[in-house]
Design a protein that fits this description.
Elements: H1 4-17, H2 20-30, E1 31-38, H3 51-64, E2 69-78, E3 83-93, E4 101-115, E5 127-129, E6 132-133, H4 134-143, E7 148-157, H5 160-164, H6 172-194, H7 196-206, H8 214-219
Parallel strand pairs: 1-7
Antiparallel strand pairs: 2-3, 3-4, 4-7, 5-6
Helix pairs in contact: 1-2, 2-3
């Protein structure tokens, strides 16, 4: 990628909504050979050739859910640390379970590496879209003088309630989790009221988050 923030939506759609051969060509084009993938259900680690495991994961993902609805709600690019944060909403369906669907939201964290030019890559004739092939895209990147960015790691982050949607068709687990979260908030309120003297000591004796414990304050 020459411009990660603007190109990543297209890359994500190719990974999740394209044909098997285009999906594989996309992984081999945009991921480094030692790229890693982390998800609540699986992880690959990082080693030479680990990109092949990422292809297997994406292939099984498409086998389970051949038609995936995906919306990219926002993108943030930390250029200094070469990190992309992508807020995604997707509807995951399993073809052998016609009534199952999991509308989930997640944040994908992509760690990038930058190279001054593109190393030699295999050629592909698979079409990414009717007007462009992977091979043509590679050729343009090779001839570019701009630095190129590749994905070194992908980490899919789900809130617990979103994660539960994969297990509970009618949202039973999500409702139970919601009730637990409200109960935990109530416990926080009770704790804050009962132990307010600790906050008073921190404010008036210790002075905030400093290298001084309550024991030091008591001893003077």
């Amino acid at each position: 990628m020459e411009d990660p923030a603007s190109e990543i939506p297209r890359v994500i759609r190719l990974l999740t909504q394209s044909t098997p051969s285009t999906q594989r060509a996309t992984i081999e084009k945009y991921f480094t050979p030692s790229a890693s993938f982390t998800h609540p259900f699986c992880r690959t680690g990082s080693f030479e050739g680990s990109r092949w495991l990422i292809w297997c994961i994406y292939r099984w993902y498409k086998i389970m859910s051949p038609r995936i609805e995906i919306t990219i709600d926002g993108i943030a690019y930390d250029e200094k640390n070469l990190t992309l944060y992508v807020n995604i909403h997707q509807v995951f369906r399993i073809w052998v379970m016609p009534f199952f669907n999991a509308p989930v939201s997640l944040v994908t964290v992509l760690r990038l590496v930058r190279y001054p030019s593109l190393p030699p890559q295999p050629s592909y004739s698979t079409s990414i879209n009717p007007n462009e092939t992977v091979n043509n895209s590679l050729h343009r990147s090779t001839s570019s003088e701009k630095p190129l960015y590749f994905i070194q790691s992908q980490n899919d982050l789900y809130q617990v309630n979103e994660f539960f949607k994969f297990f509970s068709q009618f949202g039973v687990l999500s409702v139970l989790l919601l009730l637990w979260q409200f109960a935990a908030t109530a416990l926080c309120i009770v704790g804050a009221m009962i132990f307010w003297p600790i906050s008073w000591v921190e404010q008036n004796v210790i002075g905030g988050n400093r290298e001084k414990s309550i024991g030091d304050a008591v001893r003077g």
